[in-house]
Write a structure and sequence with these properties.
By secondary structure, this protein is of the alpha+beta class. Helices cover 27% and strands 27% of the residues. α8 packs parallel to α9 and α9 packs parallel to α10. The longest helix is centred in the first third of the chain and has 14 residues. The chain is globular, with a radius of gyration of 21 Å.
């Protein structure tokens, strides 16, 4: 999918009907950027590309005027133009107006992306770009690490989930949008970026060498010898196909149990999270609901015969599991199709819609909240595991994995 010609009628007519749940948008720092969503995938939450039907939803803002009065803006412009000691760019001023208008919503996941930022956003979705390999989110006015992606520079340099980014190359990161932070952190492979982070109240400086980031969405293995492992690193457009293929292979091998590893997964496509859930859930089971205020605007139910229905399953999560990962974990947990082991997930429960703009760029706007089958919105709360097992720094240094070990032990019972 190419966003370079996003002003053309051909693009607007053929724009994909996709939703993101990451926190993909919370932006995946892979370039820094899903969950949402940094990578930017996600943790920006569930995002859809201007799906039909949402235009008529009830809004809390119906009392606002149809047109804004720009007289005061013109006054500021006149004073700036006549008094500013420096050269002003009309394009930058217009972009600044758009950014400021959207930022005034107070929602960290509602953003205006100009044409250049839109192209970067699309690269993140495709899972290949140059950066550090981490997912960014935002809490209040602070940019935070949702999850470093396993095997990439951020993780290797020691970046941890929940690290607060205070500085980027010596400049304050306070009150940056996720997109602005991603732009500063991404860069050409081989170059370095220095992050000043706050971890458990203590400041740390971490220097990271950027690299080419290419993420395979699914990895599988057989262990023990009749336990299958499916690790999903992001929810992309190939994820459902790969998971279904793995599930059929495991079924043919008569596995006694399956581990679905969603640790450090920042999110991705909403449709992929629904499709993955259908591998375990029978037709009719609820996967999630979207609500706008108290109004349910859409319910997602399983529509397939589950390949691994009834197969004993453990889902591994941690604080880097966000958005689409939380949808799958929540759906399998509430439908009693799996046992959740690990640590509490990130907590990203809002839905963003991506609207291509006629004059160029994109508007990513929060339109709803998503709820698990048991009517729980996990925003800022996360999903609690059925069995809490921590993975400490000492475990990581020793290459031990007590969470996976606990899953294997449970499946053997």
């Amino acid at each position: 999918m190419d966003l370079k010609d996003q002003n053309s009628r051909e693009y607007r007519d053929k724009k994909p009907k996709l939703k993101f749940s990451g926190n993909f948008f919370k932006a995946a720092l892979l370039g820094v950027l899903v969950f949402s969503l940094g990578i930017i995938l996600g943790q920006e939450g569930l995002v859809n590309f201007n799906l039909p039907g949402n235009e008529n939803l009830a809004s809390q803002n119906d009392k606002l005027p149809n047109k804004l009065n720009y007289q005061s803006v013109e006054e500021v412009y006149d004073q700036l133009k006549s008094s500013f000691d420096g050269e002003l760019s009309q394009d930058k001023l217009i972009d600044g107006l758009k950014e400021g208008l959207v930022k005034a919503s107070g929602d960290p996941y509602t953003e205006y992306l100009n044409a250049e930022e839109s192209e970067d956003f699309q690269e993140n979705i495709n899972g290949s770009f140059e950066g550090i390999g981490a997912e960014l989110g935002k809490e209040n006015s602070a940019i935070v690490i949702v999850a470093p992606i396993e095997g990439f520079p951020a993780e290797k340099a020691g970046v941890k989930a929940k690290d607060i980014i205070a500085e980027i190359d010596g400049e304050s990161a306070y009150d940056l949008s996720i997109t602005e932070a991603v732009k500063k952190i991404r860069g050409t492979k081989g170059t370095t970026v220095k992050l000043g982070v706050i971890r458990d109240g203590k400041p740390l400086d971490i220097e990271i060498t950027r690299a080419q980031i290419t993420i395979a969405s699914v990895e599988t293995e057989m262990i023990e010898p009749n336990i299958g492992v499916i690790k999903i690193t992001r929810f992309g457009d190939d994820t459902v196909e790969l998971v279904e293929a793995a599930a059929k292979d495991f079924k043919a091998k008569n596995v006694s149990g399956v581990i679905l590893d969603l640790r450090g997964n920042p999110g991705g496509l909403l449709e992929a999270s629904v499709g993955v859930s259908e591998v375990w859930l029978p037709k009719g089971d609820t996967i999630l609901q979207e609500k706008r205020g108290e109004q349910v605007i859409k319910t997602y139910n399983s529509e397939k015969t589950p390949i691994l229905g009834g197969v004993k399953t453990v889902v591994l999560i941690n604080e880097g599991s966000a958005s689409a990962s939380e949808i799958v974990a929540g759906a399998l947990k509430d439908n009693k199709a799996a046992t959740i082991i690990g640590e509490k997930s990130y907590g990203k429960g809002s839905v963003q819609e991506v609207k291509p703009l006629d004059f160029g760029g994109l508007l990513k706007v929060t339109i709803a909240r998503w709820f698990t089958p048991n009517n729980r919105n996990i925003d800022k709360e996360g999903i609690e595991p059925d069995k809490k097992v921590e993975l400490t720094d000492k475990d990581a240094e020793a290459k031990a994995d007590p969470q996976k070990d606990a899953a294997i032990q449970f499946l053997k019972q």
